[in-house]
Fold:
Amino acid sequence: MLALDDAQEQGILSEGPVRIAWVSHSSELGGAELSLLEAVHGLVEGGHRVEIALPDSGPLLSRLESLGAESYIVPMRFWMHQEANRPSNHQRLGRGWTHMKAVAKLSRRLDKSRPDLVVTNTLTIPVGALAAKAIGIPHVWYIHELGQEGHGTAFDYGPWLSYLFMRASSVRVIANSECVAAAFSRRLGRARLRVVSCAVETPNELLPAETASGEFRLVVVGRIAPGKRQEDAVRAASMLVRKGLNIRLALVGTEEPEYGAILRSLVGELGLGEKVTFERFTEDPFSWYRWASFVLVCSVNEAFGRVTVEAMKMGRPVVGARSAGTAELIRDGWNGFLYRPCDACDLAEKIEALATCRQLLHEVSANAHQWSREMFNREKLMNGLINVFREAIGQ
Structure:
């Protein structure tokens, strides 16, 4: 994979604003959508023109409008499904017809605005790539997910045909982390892959390393779902309580009912009672970082790890699973701790190490804060994106 610094040295960049059409699969405020917001903010400030196609109205639409970006609705649907719900041939034909209607609408819009390139903010929708191909505009995939490995999903039309289309319809593919790039390098070709990390914007504040005296507050921020493995946090909290530590655990996020019921049952079995609380999704996770002593990231398939970087930027130590994007962000014992995936006992030991050593807690917090602010910011994001966009236009 060509490093972006190498691209600069080779003289790929040129002057002048870039006109970008960005296609989003969602109008909510998940990690990929927040990354889109940060990118649009920086691009608009830099004098570039950005238009965004969304599948429906939602909180992302109002956020984009507040940035002065042009947004519009193009109803579209995924070309992926949960592996347990494989579509029939009839359903695939119906979805194909839906894709074509969306492509027709988006193509008409793009033919009028004539952007320099089209960016699709996910691998889960084909509409942006198809529309760009239809009117002869370069297309870039921006992948924020691990696909089948990360979400248990599969392509409606099979992996071979789908990846063949992705290669044929893109001049560049951006991955938001090295682990995502590695996951797709064989399928999409190393030569077209670039890694551009997110800015991960947070309030400009450094929280004190310790919170309430004698109380250790743990928080897991993210969808309450099997893939996020909040059960590790619950079991680890139980072990620490039995050791006499004053532990509180908050699970913050939209709850999948079946998994939520399993977790609540586990809390009852372990006798944790009010030690564990279930909190609703919030667009302001920073208030939970202010409340917490430590942030836990238990998922084994994080494509990037926005929560990890958010917490680090605010000076909160993170204990995360030694896997995927989390392992890419945490240097064990220096800016956080890594535990063996799915091993609640090891997780409890790492939490205890931080909780019982004030010097270590302060050192890890300071290192996390400084490193994350140097590595993830809007300037680096803009340099990376514009370099890739100019490469794509030059192709």
Observations:
- The domain at 216-375 is CATH 3.40.50.2000 (Rossmann fold).
